[in-house]
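3.2 Worked example (two chains)
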Amino acid sequence: MKLFSFLDTNEKKIIESYIPILKVAKKANSMIPELISNFNILVNIHNLEKRADTISFEIKNEITKGAIAPNLIDDLLELVDKEDDIVDSIYNLAREIVRYKIKRDYTRNFVNKKVEEISTLANLALDELIKMHKESDIENMKRIRKKIQELEQKGDYIKDFLLDYSYNNARTFKSFYHMNELAHKGDDVLDACEDSSDLLLASINSIIT
C-alpha cells in the first residue's frame, strides 16, 4: 500500500525532514570506537547532540505552523523527541565511556569490544530507520521495523552478557558499576531506535486505518 495517496506533500516533507537528526546520530555513533581510545572526541559528540536539538526545534516549528493534519500533530511532535533521544542516548553512552577507565587491560579491552559491537548494531538500526523515513510502501515499512527490532534484540543479548560479565569479573565496585552503566546506556541507543520505528509506523497506521 503506497503512502502517497494518504499523506499530503507537507506531511511527507515533514517525515523526511527527520532524516538530518538520524544522520547526526549516525555521525555521533561513528565516533564511539575512536572515543574509546581518545576521550577528547567527547566534545565533538556533545556538539552533535546540540546540533540535533537545534534541528528538532526547527522541525517542531514546522509541525506547529498548521500545515499538518490535526490528528497527526501530536504523534509527529513525539516522534521528534524520540529521534532526538537517539542522539541523547549516544551522548550519554559517550559520557559513561570517559567517566572511568577499567584498570585490568584484558577486562577493559573485552568490555570495549562489546561496546563497539553495540555501536555497530546501532549504526545498522539507524540505516534502517533512515530507509523507513524514505519509504512509501507500508508493507516495506513493517519489514524495516522488524529488522530494527531484531537488531535491538541482538543488543539485548550483548547487554545481558555484559551484565553477567560484570558480576563475574569486576574487581572493584567502580568497575562493576561502570560495566553495568555501559551495558544499559548502550542498549538505550537501540531501544530509542526501536521506539522511533514503532511510533513512525503507528503514526502512519493512524492515517490509513
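3.2.1 Second chain
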Amino acid sequence: MQFPNASSGIKKIFTAEILQLIGSVLSFICALLAFSAVGSVVGYEKTGSNVAAASALASGAGMMVFFIAASVLMLIAFIFNLIGIVRASRDESTFKIALYAVIAGIVFSALSGVFSGMNARVSGVMDALGTVADLVVTLYVIQGIRMLASRMNNREVDNRGQKIYMIILGVLLLRLIANIIVVIFGGRFATAIGLTVYLVSIALSLVQYIMYLIFLAKAKKMLA
C-alpha cells in the first residue's frame, strides 16, 4: 500500500458520510413525526378525541427516538470525519486545510448558537459561514484525493474530482448569494428570491453529494 495513512483516512471519511446520510434520513423522519404530532394535538384540541391524543403521544415518542438516533449518528460521523482527515493529512498536506476548515466550522456554529437569542442577523451570518466552512472541508478533501491520484498517475479519479469540485463551487456561490440577499436586503421580495436561489443550491447539493460518495468509494479502491 503506497499511502497507508491516506487509505485509512479516506475509509473513515467515507464511513462518516454514510453515517451522516443515515442521520439526515432519520432527521427527516423526525421532522415528519413532529408535523404529525402537531396535527394530532390540534385535532385533540378541536375534538377531544382519545385517538388524536394517542396519536400525538405516539408521534411525540417516535420523534424523540429518531431525534436521539440522528444526533448520535451525526456526532459519530463528525468524529469519524475528523479522524479520517487527520490521518490522511499524514500522507498529503492538502488535507490539513480541510482540518482547519473543520475547526472554523465548529467556531462558527458555536457563535451562531450564542447569537441566536441576541442578534438574528449576526447568527444568520455565522450560520452561513459555518455552511461555507463545511463546503471548504469537502473541497479540500477532494483536492487532497486529487493530489494523491496525481501522484499515483490515476487520471480517472483526478478528473472526476475536478468535476465535483466545480459543482461544489457553484453550490457555494449560490448559497452565499442567497444568504447575502436575505441578510442584507431583507423584506419579503428579497426573502423569496433568496429562498429560490437556496432551493436551487439544495438540488445541486443532492447531485454533488451522490457524486462525492461515488468519488470517495473510487478513492478507497485506488488507495487499497
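3.3 Remarks
The mean pLDDT is 81.
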